[in-house]
User: Which sequence fits this backbone?
DNA sequence: GGGTGAAACCAATGAACGATTGGTTTCATT
DNA sequence: AATGAAACCAATCGTTCATTGGTTTCACCC
């Protein structure tokens, strides 16, 4: 499998130089408030390289999710905006936590499946990092945030814009209301450890490029959340 | 309370005349497919009235919900576009037919599952009616419309607002572009018969309240559509 | 052969301009 | 008080042109 490993240190020196230079521009944050990078032609001139080399480097950064590009518009650092807020706000009133969880149960296993088919080695590494952060989180609230980031990353890696938008819609509806309080109860230390194990299982399946297993593991995870949400709401009701 | 009643018959004769004239234009449906009415200035000229009178009449119709207006755009009959349409229009540019079909393949089997669990006898009857209409349709275009109505009905019966919105989003994106032409090819008479049989299978599973079977039948149906879409696009490319 | 640089072209986007359209005010008339 | 007329404001659309990412081609070099 050694021949498949896309190690950066194996890259040609010129490609490496350009890639590092652009990486530095992004990480140092010296760019406009909207995150816009110089144009490909400007970068090529500044770095004294060809435009093709610049594009190869940008392709890589885009695959890593560090930048997004749009023809005729430009190249930007960060994630592309998803204008779902207005729609989420409108339908939030007739969505309850249970139906939101039901929707997650429909969509996220499918996203895990797609994710397993399309994830690169770097993508898997990023997912593991997020799972680790979720595990190491001090309090229940920050664990919730890292958990959300993990699920969102899976949705993004799945690489289908419509499905990502659907996921974002559910996510924003969940955030919009005060359901946070209710979910808080479902985050006991024992359960958190259980969730972490389920995350591992999901990521392992993605790493093995086993879409069916990934979907199954995700479904199992969400079923657990569903059960605990139900218990939490019964206890409150 | 008599002094507060805004009875139309009490209106000044000129206002009444203009209002009725515009009402007639709308009710007779003799206007473009997008429902656009003539401009206020045109209406004033045609009806030989002042623009202020026309505006008073339009104010009334807008209050009644028969029309909606937007500065700089125009006056339209019917309901203003809802946020789902707007969102669909925004993301339509970076969605291709294949990824849209991929998204359908993720969402619609889940909808069929929910539908099987929640459909009433009347719901099933409605679905059978729609399948029959699809079968009896004269030309390929009207079959396409009835087919869309059938899938939409399943999404609605599923009874989950978030999932319905996700479905509508995909549906709007599909309608928005000129993908219609491409789909046209995938509607040969033999295929239509095949699709009809698949519809039957889906509805039978829903009727039997067998969610798993309904999801499987729906997945099979969409896989068929997917294959034919691929062939159609290869043939074109 | 594969990476590189250069050039040219395509397609999508945005800024700018003018024309159009609904929104508003004012004034004279009836 | 309602109407008609006119003028102006603000938002939108269509057009044009420059810009930008996407793509192809070619020559060069290791």
Assistant:
């Amino acid at each position: 499998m050694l021949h498949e490993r896309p190690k950066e240190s194996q890259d040609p020196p010129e490609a490496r130089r350009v890639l590092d230079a652009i990486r530095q521009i992004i990480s140092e944050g010296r760019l406009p408030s909207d995150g816009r990078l110089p144009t490909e032609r400007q970068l090529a001139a500044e770095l004294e390289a060809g435009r093709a080399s610049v594009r190869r480097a940008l392709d890589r950064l885009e695959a890593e999710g560090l930048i997004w590009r749009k023809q005729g518009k430009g190249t930007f650092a960060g994630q592309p905006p998803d204008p779902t807020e207005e729609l989420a706000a409108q339908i939030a009133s007739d969505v309850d936590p249970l139906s939101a969880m039901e929707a997650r149960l429909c969509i996220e296993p499918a996203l895990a499946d797609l994710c397993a088919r399309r994830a690169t080695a770097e993508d898997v590494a990023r997912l593991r990092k997020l799972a680790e952060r979720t595990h190491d989180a001090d309090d229940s609230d920050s664990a919730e945030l890292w958990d959300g980031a993990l699920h969102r990353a899976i949705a993004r890696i799945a690489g289908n814009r419509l499905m990502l938008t659907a996921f974002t819609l559910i996510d924003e509806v969940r955030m919009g209301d005060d359901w946070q309080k209710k979910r808080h109860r479902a985050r006991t230390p024992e359960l958190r450890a259980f969730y972490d194990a389920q995350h591992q299982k999901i990521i392992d399946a993605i790493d093995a490029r086993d879409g069916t297993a990934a979907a199954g593991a995700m479904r199992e995870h969400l079923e657990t959340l569903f059960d605990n949400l139900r218990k939490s709401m019964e206890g409150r009701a």
